[in-house]
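Hi all, posting the design record for the shared folder.

TITLE: backbone redesign
STEP: 1 of 1
STRUCTURE INPUT:
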């Protein structure tokens, strides 16, 4: 099993290896015994799963969350793009088309 295959299985089956298909479990454990990168992938996913499990399942997002995300993602860009002139370069280091 490669590290990429291991990552895909982590994404598909989660960090609890006992829930993985038996056919892949032996190779996954073999990879974990040999690969620090695979161990780090598993540790990272387990930490995320534990953090998610600790959150209040009844919590609801704020009513204006979508509006705040949209404003932060697009609001500032829209306001600044209005101030650009045709000769302005939008990003430092960028070049204008010829």
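Okay, here is what came back for every position:
SEQUENCE:
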């Amino acid at each position: 099993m490669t590290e990429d295959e291991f990552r895909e299985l982590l994404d598909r089956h989660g960090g609890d290896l006992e829930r993985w298909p038996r056919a892949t479990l032996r190779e996954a454990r073999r990879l974990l015994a040999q690969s620090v990168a695979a161990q780090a992938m598993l540790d990272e996913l387990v930490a995320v799963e534990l953090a998610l499990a600790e959150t209040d399942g009844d919590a609801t997002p704020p009513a204006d969350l979508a509006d705040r995300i949209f404003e932060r993602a697009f609001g500032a860009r829209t306001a600044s793009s209005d101030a650009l002139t045709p000769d302005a370069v939008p990003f430092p280091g960028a070049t204008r088309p010829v």
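COMMENT: The two ends are 50 Å apart (CA to CA).
Let me know if anyone wants the other runs.
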